[in-house]
Structure prediction request, 59 residues.
Amino acid sequence: MTRINATEIWERHGYKIERIERDMGVPQSNIYGPDGVLLIEVAEYTQETEALRYLGFID
Prediction:
C-alpha cells in the first residue's frame, strides 16, 4: 500500500494541521476545519486517512 501525504491533502482543502511531536512513537495531529473548529484531536495517521476517506478527499 502506498502511503499518502495526509498533510498535503488536508491543506489543499483548507484545513490546518498542528503536528504534535512525542518523545516516543509517531507524531500525532490536531486537525482544524477551514472555519477554525477542531475536527480531530490527537489523531494518528490511520485516523487521518479514515477521515479523509469519509470526507471524500481520497478513495
